[in-house]
Amino acid sequence: MKKTYIYILFGLMVLAQIAASAQIVYKYERTIASDNVYKFKTAPVDPNNPFMGKYIDLDFEINSFETTDSDWNRYDKAYAYFSKDENGYAVLETLSKELLTDSKFDHVIVETYNYYEGKIRFDLPFQTYYMEESKALGAETLYRDNNRNGKEQDVYAVVHIQNGTHVLTDVIINGISIKDAVVK
């Protein structure tokens, strides 16, 4: 009799784990399928540490917001609201400490790291782009070469955003996916 209960509990636990995993996958796949795509221009990176492991470490031009409110602390969570320009590039509309329920803009949750000279600086939550292991080194070199100071290159990250969920799906260098550019 006790074994029956153990098997039932074990089966329920397995089902709960599968349901939780499926829910997470569904949430991100739905965000990608929404076709609500933003382009985030990347900024030049520190050549001493642009990559770690088998992913690309991205730095973005959008990393601060001008405000007169100096009551920000390090590691505060904030809501960054974005619109798109005529070319699909992300434009930061506002940064708020609270969720704006009546906003028409898409948002992501960011973490602030300092307030200095009227600007609150923050990290976007999609700063790592994972690569196939065999292409990582070539991607690192390509990305670093195209983001050095003084070079005029069109490098941006493709990010799908919907209801606060975000998915980084690609990095584009001069119109070519970094996955394809590495092969060339």
From TrEMBL:
Entries under InterPro entries matching the protein = GDYXXLXY
Domain of life from the UniProt record: Bacteria
Q: Which protein are we looking at? A: GDYXXLXY domain-containing protein
Protein's organism: Kordia antarctica
Lineage runs: Bacteria, Pseudomonadati, Bacteroidota, Flavobacteriia, Flavobacteriales
